[in-house]
């Protein structure tokens, strides 16, 4: 029972590989004494996620595509069947069509808008609702966002709009869940070279700019994001809900 999350069980959604922010969070949670349950999106990811989970004692792995209600319902049932209550839920999921992450936002098609908002924002609402019966009083939910929600970042386009919906959802969900003693917060992370970022044109240049202009003059380390997630899911953050916490070495405070 030692560590900031000693004796707690956390569900981590969004590990794809060892570069995923969700994996850094899982490792930090494990270090702090939490038992982990992972979900993976599709068969292609199952092997990788099982291999990573295998390195953390006592962890389990379940399938869940967040765009399918049946998957979310089955996930909640499996957790209930195993007699697991959840003390933490980590939502680290986003997706938009490649073609919508470039060019002009005005060209976003109806279907691309719907897909980005569904997977990247509504999934938090759906996951929280389905898992509510297994969330223990005192539980904490954490999601990942990006400053492109409130400021125009080149090429972020429909994902920026999805993150605005996600952050607003955090506030409305915090109001809904607060009376049950459940908190929900977002971490706004600086750019990190994961599979979701690597694909972006000019990403290395973005990292260079962060290093030059952020107050702490460095790039965001996934371990820094993970430690903030530990804090938000620990009793140390018992008075914090509905908040967006920036873990970006201060980049967002700067003007030009
Ligand atoms: P990642 O590619 O490792 O993680 C994204 C995850 O989303 C993957 O595990 C993928 O399987 C999952 N996913 C997508 N569609 C899904 C679906 N339908 N059902 C279930 N899972 C689905 O990349 P990451 O950078 O670790 O991204 C995690 C979160 O962090 C995202 O919300 C992202 O927007 C956010 N974020 C990333 C950065 C960055 O620079 N990398 C910065 C700020 C915020
Ligand atoms: C993504 C696109 C454009 C600019 C971007 C990003 N910047 C950063 C990201 C500056 C930091 C990464 N990020 C914060 C994301 O939320 C990424 C989401 C994402 C990435 C992809 C790439 C591959 C794909 N679909 C995606 N959907 C969402 O096909």
UniProtKB/TrEMBL annotation:
<keyword id="KW-0520">NAD</keyword>
<dbReference type="InterPro" id="IPR014358">
    <property type="entry name" value="Enoyl-ACP_Rdtase_NADH"/>
</dbReference>
<dbReference type="GO" id="GO:0006633">
    <property type="term" value="P:fatty acid biosynthetic process"/>
</dbReference>
<feature type="binding site">
    <location>
        <position position="14"/>
    </location>
    <ligand>
        <name>NAD(+)</name>
    </ligand>
</feature>
<feature type="active site" description="Proton acceptor">
    <location>
        <position position="146"/>
    </location>
</feature>
<dbReference type="Pfam" id="PF13561">
    <property type="entry name" value="adh_short_C2"/>
</dbReference>
<protein>
    <recommendedName>
        <fullName>Enoyl-[acyl-carrier-protein] reductase [NADH]</fullName>
        <ecNumber>1.3.1.9</ecNumber>
    </recommendedName>
</protein>
<feature type="active site" description="Proton acceptor">
    <location>
        <position position="156"/>
    </location>
</feature>
<feature type="binding site">
    <location>
        <begin position="192"/>
        <end position="196"/>
    </location>
    <ligand>
        <name>NAD(+)</name>
    </ligand>
</feature>
<comment type="similarity">
    <text>Belongs to the short-chain dehydrogenases/reductases (SDR) family. FabI subfamily.</text>
</comment>
<comment type="pathway">
    <text>Lipid metabolism.</text>
</comment>
<dbReference type="GO" id="GO:0004318">
    <property type="term" value="F:enoyl-[acyl-carrier-protein] reductase (NADH) activity"/>
</dbReference>
<keyword id="KW-0444">Lipid biosynthesis</keyword>
<feature type="binding site">
    <location>
        <begin position="20"/>
        <end position="21"/>
    </location>
    <ligand>
        <name>NAD(+)</name>
    </ligand>
</feature>
<feature type="binding site">
    <location>
        <position position="163"/>
    </location>
    <ligand>
        <name>NAD(+)</name>
    </ligand>
</feature>
<keyword id="KW-0560">Oxidoreductase</keyword>
<keyword id="KW-0443">Lipid metabolism</keyword>
<feature type="binding site">
    <location>
        <position position="93"/>
    </location>
    <ligand>
        <name>NAD(+)</name>
    </ligand>
</feature>
<feature type="binding site">
    <location>
        <position position="41"/>
    </location>
    <ligand>
        <name>NAD(+)</name>
    </ligand>
</feature>
<keyword id="KW-0276">Fatty acid metabolism</keyword>
<keyword id="KW-0275">Fatty acid biosynthesis</keyword>
<dbReference type="InterPro" id="IPR002347">
    <property type="entry name" value="SDR_fam"/>
</dbReference>
<dbReference type="InterPro" id="IPR036291">
    <property type="entry name" value="NAD(P)-bd_dom_sf"/>
</dbReference>
<feature type="binding site">
    <location>
        <begin position="65"/>
        <end position="66"/>
    </location>
    <ligand>
        <name>NAD(+)</name>
    </ligand>
</feature>
<feature type="binding site">
    <location>
        <position position="96"/>
    </location>
    <ligand>
        <name>substrate</name>
    </ligand>
</feature>
């Amino acid at each position: 029972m030692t560590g900031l999350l000693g004796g707690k069980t956390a569900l981590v959604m969004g590990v794809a590989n060892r570069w995923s922010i969700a994996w850094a969070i899982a490792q930090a949670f494990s270090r702090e004494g939490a038992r982990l349950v992972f979900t993976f999106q599709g068969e292609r990811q199952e092997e990788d996620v099982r291999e990573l989970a295998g390195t953390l004692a006592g962890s389990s792995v379940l399938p869940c595509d967040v765009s399918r209600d049946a998957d979310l319902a089955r996930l909640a049932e499996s957790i209930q069947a195993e007699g697991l209550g959840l003390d933490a839920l980590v939502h680290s999921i986003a997706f938009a069509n490649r073609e919508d992450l470039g060019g002009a936002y005005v060209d976003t098609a109806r279907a691309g808008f719907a897909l980005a908002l569904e997977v990247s924002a509504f999934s938090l609402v759906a996951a929280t609702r389905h898992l509510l019966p297994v969330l223990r009083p005192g539980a904490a939910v954490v999601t990942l966002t990006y400053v492109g929600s409130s400021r125009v970042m080149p090429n972020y386009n429909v994902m920026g709009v999805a993150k605005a919906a996600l952050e607003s959802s955090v506030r409305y969900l915090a109001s809904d869940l607060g009376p049950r003693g459940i908190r929900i917060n977002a971490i706004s992370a600086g750019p990190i070279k994961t599979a979701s970022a690597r694909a972006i044109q000019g990403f290395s240049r973005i990292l260079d700019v962060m290093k030059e202009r952020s107050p702490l003059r460095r790039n965001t380390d996934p371990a820094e994001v993970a430690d903030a997630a530990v804090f938000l899911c620990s009793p140390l953050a018992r008075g914090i809900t509905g908040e967006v916490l920036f873990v970006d070495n201060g980049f967002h405070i700067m003007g030009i």
